[in-house]
Amino acid sequence: MTIDKQDHHQLVEEAALWMVQLSSDDESTRKNAQLKFNQWKRNGQQHQKIAADIEQCISSIQKISQTKHHKKAVKAGLGSAKAYKHLRAGSAFVIAFIALSGSTLYLSDTSVAYLTADIQGDSAQWTSRTLADGSRLILRGKSAVNIDFQAKQRVIELVQGQIYVDVAKDQNRPFLVKTSHGQIQALGTAFSVNYKSAATELKMLHSRVRVQTTNRYSKQQVIVNAGQAVSMDQNGVQSLPALNIYSEQQKWNKHQLMVEDLPLDQVLKELDQNYKGKIMFNAEALHKIQVNAVLPLNQTQDALKLLATVFPNLKVYQITPYLLVVSVKK
């Protein structure tokens, strides 16, 4: 059985988080983590393989690091002596592995579709384009699109990530955004689209669009109006909670994240979209923490400092310039 790239990345991140917990200073935490990690590994062959790969790499690094010379090398690879000092040896080895191999295998969102796309966004940035018809397009982080404007229609294929579109009027050429789950036909102007392998999410900011799924059994069509949000997947179109139009506009135009009673793990997922590397955290441990804040999406470090100030039990430490770990202090 094959597993798609995004699911594979998720499993690797989960395994790495277990490894960090297994190297905790607290013995009871380590024992509890070991029990749960063993259960996690029994979830399937892919879980077992990823766990074995990481454990083998950690074992190799531990053997190499016995010499004074190699200890210094690992220490330097973690970015700074200050960061290294606060980590136990075990977690240091885990993070060293992630830092070395993750940039190319696990922490990268690069795909063939991204590399061959007409427009490619960059990590930690917002890429703006004015298209040939005058429409405005914004790509968030490492997103990618293909553009196909013809005499009878205008098509944007979203192959990865999130985009915001402000559509220029052209009565003779419909404007469509397509993903593997279906298409969105603009009947007005502004909306955002978030494409993931499991589903495509639409947030309508102004006027309305027509959503049509590519379900093999039936092609469902739904009109989505301003303030509404929907998700479409292989099962059709599902309504999402009502959209705060102002907050969504602030995200795309001012690069600010405005949240009200949003779980911390969801906040970190948002911040991760515009971080140059990866923010790692245990979603289950942070889900019960509710956040009310306005956070800068372009300054991840500043946003995390604000969160750490509001929640003193929150521990944020940077392992490398491309890897941050967020956890709850014991």
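^ that was protein a. below is b, sequence first then the tokens
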Amino acid sequence: MGSFAIRGEHAPLAVRQVVPTRSHANKRYLVLGGAGGAGKAAAELLAAEGAAVVIGDVRAQALNEAIASFGSNAAGQSGVAIDVGNAASIAAAIEEVEQRLGGIDGLVNCAAIVRHVDPLETPWSDWERVFSINVYGAFEAARLVAKGMIAKGIKGAIVNVASEAGKKGHSQSLAYSASKAAMINFTRVLSEVLAPNDINVNCVCPGGMATDMLREVAVAYGDLVKQAPDDVFKQLISSQLRRHIDPAELARTISFLLSDDAMIIRGQAINADGGDTPY
């Protein structure tokens, strides 16, 4: 059913600038998928807020460029090569980070891939690849980091980056949507499992964020509707903000969920899509 609007369109809402605090001083974080997009923004903010941050990514050049971009916040920040679609790579990277930092206080699971295809033509291989990274790899990283926290008595937090697609679903990215729904579900269960150890687990569900992944979406949708990708990209915005979400804005939500201020928010899938998802 469509909607009848009685209010006119409003101008895009400005991105509000926020001065970082030292809210994560002396904390140690691992950000997977940290070489670009939301992961990179989260890593930059956490570093600015006083944390030692290791960013993990499979893209070597992007990883080095991300570390270099930290600038004055680069002290104590580093990168680790990791293939989130490979269990052995995940285990080796987490062990290296724990040795490097002396422990991990928090994990940000931001690594993900998407495949765009007609749902009735989605090949088995797409399901395997998407789930191996977005679900199996994300859970394996969370599991191993949590075990390390428990062994050291660390009261930490895990933030999984899901998507509004995990709640609403998108027909042209069925495997991706299903994988993010699975992430939302395992977040809920893992939160309950880890509560006795005082390890908090939540996920965020962004949408319409100005990242390379959204540009991939624009290319795929552009092919379907015979429009230029740039024209499609301009339309993939928040209905309330009337603009794309800035990755730095999502980073603030991630930072909050990693903090002690979010202790009573547990096992939740927080909508961070500018008001587009109603539940």
